[in-house]
Amino acid sequence: MTAADNVNPYLGRYPLLASRRGIWREIARYVRRDAPNAQTVLELGAGYCDFINTFPASRKLAFDLNAEMAAYADPGVELRIGDAVELAGIEPSSLDLVFASNFLEHLDAEQLHRLLVRVREALRPGGRIILIQPNFRKCPEHYFDDDTHKTVFSDESLAQLVVSHGFKIEKIVPGLLPFSMKSRLPKWPILVRLYLSSPVKPGAAQMYLVASRR
Predict the structure, then answer these.
(1) CB 181 within 8 A of CB 26
(2) Domain residue spans in the chain?
(3) Which of 79, 122, 145, 175 is the most exposed place for a label (fewest CB within 10 A)?
């Protein structure tokens, strides 16, 4: 075994930047405005658990395939190592909010269908799914910089997919955040807060969708 065999590809693809937690605290604060009463929250593809660690809720659940991410979950987070598509162990009508950032584009059509069926089952009536995704319309030249992307989404196609699975669109922002954490997104929390609240967002290529279970 060589040294290269011991390198975690996740850490290389998604580096653990010192500014991550502060940025995600502000993103979680923004998301909270669209799910103010959410007390049982699930994050799909939680990675370093930046969102689920900082989102205020009485019960926090998360899925990730990478067992090494358990080291980053706060004690109050129920991190389940496994495939998020099936939502194994999640009871029907038990969740107030399902959140995912940069997750759906890694799934194929069949996986997307299975996941959204399970998400709808797992949400309480009126429960919400909130998604942050790269918007192909705003970053076509960079969308496949990550070669694990399988499905192309624009704000229109993502909305159509969600509606076709029994959800009602509550809010959609075609460009909320820059394409990558490694971009020129301001790293100071107060600047992130100002960026999120500004009607003008230079370089924003990540869309934001809020939908409720009909």
Answers:
(1) no
(2) 3-213
(3) 145
Tell which residue, 151, 160, 128, has the closest CA to residue 37: 128
Give the DSSP per-residue string, 127-163: EEEEEEEE-GGG-TTTGGGSTT------HHHHHHHHH
68 contact partners, CB below 8 Å, separation of at least 6: 8, 10
> What is the phi-psi region of residue 89: left when phi exceeds 0, alpha when psi lies from -120 to 50, beta otherwise?
left
> 182's torsion region: left (phi>0), alpha (psi -120 to 50) or beta?
alpha
- Kindly tell me if the per-residue pLDDT of 187 is higher than 80: no
The pTM for the full model equals: 0.89
pLDDT in tens, 91-121: 999 999 999 999 999 999 999 999 999 999 9
- Answer positive or negative: Cα dihedral of 81, 128, 94, 107: negative
* Six-digit token string for 35: 């799910």
CA gap 34, 29 in Å, rounded: 10
